[in-house]
Design goal:
Elements lengths: L24 H4 L19 H4 L12 E2 L5 E2 L1 H5 L3 E3 L7 E4 L4 E4 L5 E3 L8 E10 L10 E2 L6 E9 L6 H4 L6 E10 L8 H6 L9 E3 L17 E6 L10 E6 L3 E3 L1 H8 L27 E2 L4
Parallel strand pairs: 1-8, 2-15, 10-13, 10-14
Antiparallel strand pairs: 3-6, 4-5, 4-11, 5-7, 6-7, 7-9, 9-10, 12-13, 12-15
The structure holds zinc ion (ZN).
The site of zinc ion has 4 residues, from strand 7.
C-alpha cells in the first residue's frame, strides 16, 4: 500500500479531542458554509428554504422519475453522451460532514446528449445513501428508492471560467446520477473509495489514497440509456443550474462497501453517523422529463 498523508481537519490537523473541555466562541458558532443545514429534523430538507430561498424554486431536484411519463427524444438517441474521463492519480477523498467526496484534478469532460457540443468539466463526485437498503438514492424510480446514488458534478467550461462562476447560471452545471444497488460481490471501481472511507471517518478529514481511479470505472456498462431534465443542486444553496442526466442502469456494490459509507460521521469527533443524506423528491411541475431510449 502506498504512503498516506496523516489525517487532517479544518483546525490544521489538531486532534479535536485534545481541545475537549475548552470551548471558544468560534467553536459554538457554526461555520458559514455549514450553517443551518443537514439531514436531521431541525435542519433537514424541509427547513432549507428558510435560509436558502432557491430551495423553494420551480426547478428543484431530485424528482421522482416515472419512465412512462418521460418523453423519448430522438435527438438524444442520435447524439450519445461523450464521456472523456481521465485516470485520477493518487485520488483524494474527503468527508465534508454531509457526504463522501472526491475532488478531481485531471481534465475529465463530458459533452453530447442534452449538453450538445459544450464541454462540461468534472470537478468532483460524491455519494448519497440511507440507513438501510430500503432508502438512500435522491432520484426515485416510480417512487422506488435505490440504496444509494453517485453524483458526478461538472461545470460548463465552454462558457464559464470556474465552477464558482457557473453554479448560479441556468446552463452552468451538468450532473450525472448513478443509482447504487446492493449485491453480493464487491464493485471493483468502488473499492478504492470503500477501502479508504474509514480514514476520513470524521467531518473535515481528507486523505490521499495513493491509488489511481478512472471515474469511468464507477459508471455502469450502458451509459446510452438515461433520463434528463433541468434541475438544481440537491444540497443548499440548491442553485437551479443543473442539467441532470440520470442513468437508467445502476451499479452494484457489496453490503460491506455501502456500510463503509454508513460508518462516516457528520461531526468532528466521530460520534454521530451520517445516517442518511438524501433529499426527498420534489415536483417536476412544468418541466419536461426526456429519455434517450424507448421503453
Ligand atoms: Zn449529490
Amino acid at each position: 500500500m502506498a504512503k498516506r498523508k496523516a489525517r487532517s481537519n479544518e483546525n490544521g490537523g489538531r486532534d479535536p479531542k485534545s481541545r475537549r473541555g475548552v470551548v471558544s466562541p468560534e467553536e459554538i458558532k457554526p461555520k458559514t458554509t455549514d450553517m443551518h443545514w443537514g439531514y436531521d429534523k431541525e435542519n433537514g430538507p424541509q427547513t432549507w428554504g428558510h435560509h436558502y430561498p432557491e430551495a423553494n424554486g420551480p426547478r428543484q431536484s431530485p424528482i421522482d422519475i416515472d419512465p412512462s411519463s418521460a418523453k423519448f427524444d430522438v435527438i438524444l438517441a442520435n447524439n450519445p453522451l461523450v464521456i472523456n474521463y481521465q485516470t485520477e492519480h493518487n485520488l483524494n477523498v474527503e468527508n465534508n460532514g454531509h457526504s463522501y467526496k472526491a475532488d478531481i484534478k485531471e481534465e475529465s469532460t463530458i459533452s453530447g446528449g442534452p449538453l450538445g457540443s459544450s464541454k462540461y468539466k468534472l470537478v468532483q463526485f460524491h455519494f448519497h445513501w440511507g440507513r438501510d437498503d430500503k432508502c438512500g438514492s435522491e432520484h426515485t424510480l416510480k417512487g422506488k428508492m435505490y440504496p444509494g446514488e453517485l453524483h458526478l458534478v461538472h461545470y460548463n467550461a465552454e462558457k464559464y471560467k470556474s465552477f464558482t462562476e457557473a453554479v448560479t447560471q441556468p446552463d452552468g452545471l451538468a450532473v450525472i446520477g448513478v443509482f447504487l444497488k446492493v449485491g453480493t460481490i464487491d464493485h471493483e471501481g468502488f473499492k478504492v473509495l470503500s477501502d479508504n472511507a474509514s480514514k476520513v471517518k470524521c467531518k473535515a478529514f481528507k486523505t490521499e489514497t495513493g491509488l489511481d481511479l478512472n471515474p469511468n470505472n464507477l459508471l455502469p456498462e450502458n451509459v446510452t440509456n438515461y433520463w434528463t431534465y433541468e434541475g438544481s443542486l440537491t444540497t443548499p444553496p440548491c442553485c437551479e443550474s443543473v442539467q441532470w442526466i440520470v442513468l437508467k442502469d445502476p451499479i452494484s456494490v457489496s453490503p460491506e462497501q455501502i456500510r463503509a459509507l454508513r460508518n462516516l460521521c457528520c461531526d468532528e469527533n466521530g460520534s454521530k453517523r451520517i445516517i442518511e443524506n438524501f433529499r426527498p423528491p420534489l415536483p417536476l411541475g412544468e418541466r419536461e422529463l426526456r429519455s434517450s431510449f424507448q421503453l
